[in-house]
Amino acid sequence: MPLIHRPTDAPGAAPASLASGSADERWTAARALAATAQGVQALAKALAGETDPPVREAIFTGLARIATPDSAAAVLPYLRSDDATLRTGALDALRAMPGAAKPHLNTLLNDPDADVRLLACEIVRNLDSTEATRLLCALIDGERETNVCASAVDVLAEIGTAEALPHLARCAERFKGDPFLGFSIKVATDRLRTARE
Fold this sequence. Notes:
Blueprint: H1 17-20, H2 23-33, H3 40-49, H4 53-66, H5 69-75, H6 84-96, H7 98-109, H8 114-124, H9 129-142, H10 146-159, H11 165-174, H12 179-196
């Protein structure tokens, strides 16, 4: 599909055009609203009813650019969407604003929905290694879903610290019947031990 060149940002784009304008006008309005934290409410409202993929992307990008806890909160519900493009857009936006997403991570990592916990591991990937290790170790200590544990272990292998080693060992013992997770934990453990040495 060819790239569509959108018009440049209109300095006076009205929030109303997010609801009533053409796709190009909505795209331009979303870009203009991203320049100010006051745009969060209008962008969040528009996202709820937007169906055009490029406009949705502009809204997610705008909320990520504003990067406040309120803009992160506006994106969070879409991690539960049945629409894969909305879930991906929400995940990408939250990963782009890790500082704003951080206050929500404990809730996300303890969410009753395993899919939300799994996606939360990807958001943690953009935190500093000490904070990421703390959050993911707390997760795997009590996690029952192997897919969620595997996602957390993957992130720990990439950015974790040696403090994760005993938590990984306990996780391996708990899921010793799962060869894939066992292999992933071994890889993570070897990497963290090498990094420590």
